[in-house]
Amino acid sequence: MAGISAALRVFQSRKMLALLLLGFSSGLPLFLTSRTLQAWMTVEGIDLTAIGLFSLVGLPYSLKFLWSPLLDRYTLPFLGRRRGWLLLIQVLLLGAIALMAVQDPSTSLRLLAVNALAIAFLSASQDIAVDAYRADVLDPLEMGAGAGIYVLGYRLALLVTGSLALILADHLPWPVVYVLMALLMLVGMVTTLWAPEPAVHPPAPRSLAEAVIRPFLDFFQRYGWGTGLVILLFICLYRLGDALTGNMMTPFLLQQGFSQTQIGAVQGGVGLMATIVGALAGGAAISQIGIHRALWIMGGLQASSNISYFVLANAGANPTVMVAAISIDNFCAGLAIAALTALLMSLCNPQFSATQYALLSSLFAFSRDVLAAPAGKAAEIMGWPLFFLFTIGAALPALLLLPFFAPWRGKPAFPRPGSDE
Fold it and tell me: What is the CA radius of gyration of the chain?
């Protein structure tokens, strides 16, 4: 109870409220080029293989480290080093999402893919700027709370674009839904104007070459090549099972016989509460057991949660089972994302946090967007029940890497900000 109360009290801080809203802004575009777009494509009769391959438009999330040094090196002539980039990117995002209203999946998949790719590029750029702002504005002792609040805002956005959008699509044309979703970017724009400026401004790299090379070298100097590579592989694989499931979740639920309104209502109701409870429980647990043990527990729960979808695949269009499955999935996803975010923050050197966080989070995006791309084909070949058992197995390799850098008993190979862990 004390941990939950402490987590709720951080809303009284202006910077924490700003991070909550900026987390919402960061999460807003993701489903609009993935899960929500998949629903639109499914309704239009696009085949599962094409829908699964559409996850490749998310490649900018995996490659954002390529241009993240630019945001470290250069400062726009307004709103400071971080907020200036944020505002510009958010304005462009609003326009790009609204432009989806003129697309038609049934007649021009290529044009739709180009538009979605542009949104993904801008969204990945926004993530770079928000992550850098978060690293700059938070004191070391605030980083745990800041990670939890940001994750909560991000998940709220995913639930809005993954549930409210589906509900609206049962009553409004899809182009109108995308215009409404675009207008939600105003939340991020207003927050950027209102958010506090960091008290300390880390010095910018003296050259673009320094901004590119030193963050990479610094990581391996601190952890060594062997442990460093194991950590990077772990980040890439940690949420692979969940990524495979998420890539096919909307087509699965629709083919099971659930309506868009049913899916949206459950995800936005019970699913929302499960996500909030999971995020808060994860933050409180991490503060008590440490990041390394949280990775074990929350990774295991995340993997085993897909059993609920195996049960649903065999139960058919059973609303009770669907509610239970989505609730379990959202709760465990909240736990796992909180643990992974805390890990990524703990791995970053504050001097290079923008570029290093972009590099590390790109590995997670690689799993979600590239390794999960064949999910549609796998589901077609295996059928839904066997597919969900396969996703559980896909989550195990990451857990097998934990003893090499984060043993259950013993000191982990990475420090936790603000502690001696």
Answer: 20
Q: If DSSP codes are grouped into helix, strand and coil, which group holds residue 46?
A: coil
Helix (H, G, I), strand (E, B) or coil at 139: coil
Rounded Cα distance between 421 and 417, Å, is 9
Measure the CA–CA gap between 358 and 340, rounded to whole angstroms. 14
Instruction: Write the CA distances from 257 to 145, 308, 312, integer angstroms.
Output: 40, 17, 12
Q: 2-6 — which CB contacts under 8 Å span 24+ positions?
A: 3/283, 3/284, 3/285, 3/287, 3/288, 4/280, 4/281, 4/284, 6/145, 6/284
Q: What is the pLDDT of residues 168-215, one digit of tens each?
A: 888 888 889 999 999 999 999 999 998 888 776 666 666 777 777 878
Closest Cα to residue 50, out of 247, 257, 216? 247
Residue 233 corresponds to which tokens in the numbers above?
């592989």
Q: Rounded to the nearest 10 degrees, how much is the dihedral formed by the CA atoms of 417, 282, 26, 275?
A: -170
Residue 222 in contact with residue 349, Cβ under 8 Å?
Answer: yes
